[in-house]
Amino acid sequence: RESRGKLPRYPGLERWILLEKMGDGAFSNVYRAKDSLGELGEVAIKVVRKYELSSSQRANILKEVQIMRQLNHPNIVKLISFSESKSYYYIILELCQGGELFHQIVRLTYFSEDLSRHVIVQVAEALRYLHEEKGVVHRDIKPENLLFDPIPFIPTKNPKPKNPNDEDKADEGEFIPGLGAGGIGRIKIADFGLSKVVWDSVTMTPCGTVGYTAPEIVKDERYSKSVDMWALGCVLYTLLCGFPPFYDESISVLTEKVARGQYTFLSPWWDDISKPAQDLVSHLLTVDPDARYTIEQFMAHPWIRNTDEETQPAP
Ligand code: ADP
Ligand code: MG
Question: Which UniProt keywords apply (predicted)?
Fold first, then answer.
């Protein structure tokens, strides 16, 4: 699995032993790496090629790091450190062993309602923290930017052995890396490349001079939060049925469909998905941002509140 030989060596990154390439973007490669000093264990390193960036794109990388520095939440990828060389930025991140949620949707075709709830609640917890406590909007919520740490052992639904002589089998469960009946592990939001601070978390006001803020700025701040809620709806839709709510080969047709909020609960795929789940999706995929569910409304929805002890996975 480790393909150390083919991996590049970066100046200034000598502390880290690159183990494998885990992802790549337009201007970056992401590697799994381990600490040669043995202090920090395994990490993810996003190596951004500076020389391909305009000065405003460079500023955006610094902003991404600046925002991540302020965040501390179990459902958000933690920034470990940041450094740079002449040609590269190095963003050292907490490693998410499970990789992208996207691959799990592809692997499983779609998620059960319980597993979908387990996932989406964690994304929502992170959004609530970003929106309500940090004044940050993510603006790029999608399955590729949702990572997870797998739970290595999934206990069986009925941990009590039928035969008391089989007491030692009580803990028997299924070992499915990354996935199981009870959950998928801990979900973490990654990629703050498009994120933005919309209000000052200290003064609890929109960014800019208080009192001179124009109404459209105040509204803009509210709207940008609702952008994440729309994306949350798209992710929930995709989890439940395995394909996205809006799709067309033609970008212009797709854009028009999104603008009109033209999606359907396509039969037969949606036939067996509960009405409360559909109701929640429809409140998120609402074109009017003022009518769209806020994070609080989302959390209060019956489908989210439905906590069956049997199906609720351990964190
Ligand atoms: P980009 O801006 O290029 O989309 P991302 O920050 O989304 O950059 O990283 C690209 C990909 O690298 C992700 O979609 C994911 O597959 C992988 N990745 C990024 N950060 C981590 C991490 N902390 N742990 C595991 N994989 C990661
Ligand atoms: Mg990304």
Answer: ATP-binding, Kinase, Nucleotide-binding, Serine/threonine-protein kinase, Transferase
- Distance in angstroms (rounded) separating the CA atoms of residues 200 and 73: 18
Is the ipTM, as predicted for this complex, more than 0.95? yes
In this structure, which amino acid lies at residue 225? K
Ligand lying nearest the CA atom of residue 194: 1
Low-confidence ranges of the chain (pLDDT < 70): 1-5, 152-183, 307-315
221-246 in b/e burial notation, b at 16+ Cβ within 10 A?
A: beebbbbbbbbbbbbbbbbbbeeebb
Active site residues per annotation? 140
DSSP letter at 145 equals G
Ligand 1 pocket test target in 147, 187, 189 with most atoms within 8 Å of CB: 147
Is residue 197 classed exposed, middle or buried when 0-12, 13-18 and 19+ CB atoms within 10 A define those classes?
Answer: middle
Say if residue 257 carries a ligand binding annotation.
Answer: no
Nearest ligand (C-alpha, residue 65): 1
Q: Report how far ligand 1's centroid is from the alpha carbon of 21 (Å).
A: 10
